C-alpha cells in the first residue's frame, strides 16, 4: 500500500509499505479521504509540531475516513464496506483523570493521537491506503454522509467543542478572529448552535470568502483596515497569533468571554494582555474535543453543510503538493484522496 510519510523537515515521501493486518480488537480500514491539518504541515516544514519532534519516519494524518475492509480477532458488529471515520485519540494506560476532570477525556496527560510524534515510538496516522484501527476509535458514518464529508468530522468536532466551551451561544452575537479552516468551522458551528449573528475577521480575503460561505453574516479584512467590533460579548480567537491577542481582548466586552481555540506558541511571545484584567474577561481554552465527533456526524446527517471549507483536493500521489497548498495563503481545508485505484 502507499502511505504519506514525513522523514524530517522538508522530507515528505509517498512510499510503499506492507499492507497492515488487523490485530486483536482492531478493524482494517480502507482509507478514502484525509484532511490536511496544520500539525501535518508543521511536521513537514519543521520536523516537529509544537513540542513533538520527529525521531523516526511518521505516517501523517488524523482527519480521515474510509470503509471497513476486515475485522481482527475478537471484533464483531462491523460489516465490510461500512463507512467510518476515526476518533484519533486514545489515552495511554498510565493516564488517569482526577475526579475534577471526569468526562473531559481530551485533557488526559498522556494521549496517543493519530499522526503524532508526541511519544516514542510515534503513532502513525491515517494517510495511507489501509490502516488497522482499534475498533473503539471507529465512528460509523450516518446514512447520507459520504466519506469525503466524514473526513471533515474531526476538525468540525474541534470547532463544536470550542463552541460548547463558550456556554450558551443561542441568540448571541459572536465574533470569530481568524478564518482558517478551524475558524471557518467555528463560524458554521456557532450558527448551528443558534448564534444570532457571526462576524469573521482575518487578513486574507480568500479565507473570509470561505467564512462567508460557511455562514458568517459579516466579514472584516483586518489587512485592509477593518477593525474588530467593540464590546463583543462572545469572541472566538482562532488565529493563534500572539500579536492579535491585544486587539482581540480589547474587542471583547467588559465581563465578556473569549474562547481560545487557535493554538498559541509553546515558547515565549509578546502579547498585550492588560485588558484581560481590567475588563474582567473570561478567557477559556478549547483543546481538541471529547465526543463532539459524534455530534459533528449528527450535524452532518441533519444537513449542516461545511463542504465549502474544502478548497483543494489531491490524489495521494500528489501529497507533497497537497501539503504545500495547505501551507499557502490561497487555501482553506485541503483533502487528499487516499483510496486505492
In round numbers, the mean pLDDT is 96
Tally of helical segments: 9
Largest sheet at a glance?
Answer: 7 strands, mixed
Low-confidence stretches: none
Percent strand: 25-35%
What characteristic shape results from the CA principal axes? Answer: globular
Helix content range? 10-25%
Quick structural summary:
The protein is an alpha/beta fold. Helix content is 23%, strand content 30%.
Q: What distinguishing features does this structure have?
A:
6-stranded parallel sheet, 7-stranded mixed sheet
Describe this entry's structure for a reader.
The protein contains nine helices and 20 strands. With 341 residues, it is an alpha/beta fold. The strands form five sheets. Strands 3, 7, 8, 11, 12, 19 and 20 form a seven-stranded mixed β-sheet that branches. Strands 15-14-13-16-17-18 form a six-stranded parallel β-sheet, with helices on both faces. Helix 4 links the parallel strand 13 (173-177) and strand 14 (197-202). It is globular and about 60 Å long. The chain starts with a strand and ends with a strand.
Secondary structure blueprint with pairings:
Blueprint: E1 2-8, E2 11-16, E3 26-35, H1 38-46, E4 48-49, E5 52-53, E6 58-59, E7 63-71, E8 83-86, E9 89-91, E10 111-113, E11 130-134, E12 138-140, H2 147-150, H3 153-165, E13 173-177, H4 181-192, E14 197-202, H5 205-213, E15 218-221, E16 232-237, H6 245-251, E17 252-260, H7 274-278, E18 282-285, H8 292-301, E19 310-315, H9 319-327, E20 333-337
Parallel strand pairs: 13-14, 13-16, 14-15, 16-17, 17-18, 19-20
Antiparallel strand pairs: 1-2, 1-6, 3-7, 3-11, 3-20, 4-5, 7-8, 8-12, 9-10
Helix pairs in contact: 1-9, 3-4, 3-8, 4-5
Amino acid at each position: 500500500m502507499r502511505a504519506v510519510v514525513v522523514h524530517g523537515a522538508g522530507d515528505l515521501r509517498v512510499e510503499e509499505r506492507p499492507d497492515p493486518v488487523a490485530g486483536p480488537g482492531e478493524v482494517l480500514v480502507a482509507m478514502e479521504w484525509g484532511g490536511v491539518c496544520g500539525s501535518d504541515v508543521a511536521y513537514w516544514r519543521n520536523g516537529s509540531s509544537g513540542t513533538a519532534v520527529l525521531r523516526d519516519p511518521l505516517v501523517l494524518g488524523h482527519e480521515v475516513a474510509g470503509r471497513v475492509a476486515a475485522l481482527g480477532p475478537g471484533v464483531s458488529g462491523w460489516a465490510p464496506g461500512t463507512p467510518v471515520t476515526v476518533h484519533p485519540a486514545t489515552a495511554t494506560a498510565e493516564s488517569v483523570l482526577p475526579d475534577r476532570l471526569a468526562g473531559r477525556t481530551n485533557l488526559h496527560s498522556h494521549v496517543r493521537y493519530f499522526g503524532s510524534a508526541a511519544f516514542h515510538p510515534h503513532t502513525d496516522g491515517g494517510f495511507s491506503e489501509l490502516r488497522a484501527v482499534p475498533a473503539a476509535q471507529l465512528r460509523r458514518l450516518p446514512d447520507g454522509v459520504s466519506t469525503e464529508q466524514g473526513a471533515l468530522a474531526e476538525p468540525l468536532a474541534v470547532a463544536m467543542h470550542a463552541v460548547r466551551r463558550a456556554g450558551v451561544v443561542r441568540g448571541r452575537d459572536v465574533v470569530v478572529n481568524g478564518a482558517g479552516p478551524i475558524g471557518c468551522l467555528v463560524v458554521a458551528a456557532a450558527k448551528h448552535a443558534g448564534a444570532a449573528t457571526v462576524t469573521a475577521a482575518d487578513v486574507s480575503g480568500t479565507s473570509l470568502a470561505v467564512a462567508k460561505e460557511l455562514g458568517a453574516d459579516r466579514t472584516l479584512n483586518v489587512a485592509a483596515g477593518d477593525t474588530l467590533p467593540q464590546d463583543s460579548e462572545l469572541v472566538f480567537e482562532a488565529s493563534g497569533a500572539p500579536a492579535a491577542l491585544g486587539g482581540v481582548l480589547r474587542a471583547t466586552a467588559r465581563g465578556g468571554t473569549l474562547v481560545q481555540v487557535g493554538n498559541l506558541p509553546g515558547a515565549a511571545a509578546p502579547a498585550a494582555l492588560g485588558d484581560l484584567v481590567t475588563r474582567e474577561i473570561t478567557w477559556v481554552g478549547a483543546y481538541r474535543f471529547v465526543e463532539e465527533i459524534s455530534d459533528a456526524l449528527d450535524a452532518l446527517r441533519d444537513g449542516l453543510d461545511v463542504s465549502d471549507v474544502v478548497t483543494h483536493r489531491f490524489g495521494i500521489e500528489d501529497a507533497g503538493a497537497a501539503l504545500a497548498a495547505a501551507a499557502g495563503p490561497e487555501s482553506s481545508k485541503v483533502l487528499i484522496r487516499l483510496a486505492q485505484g
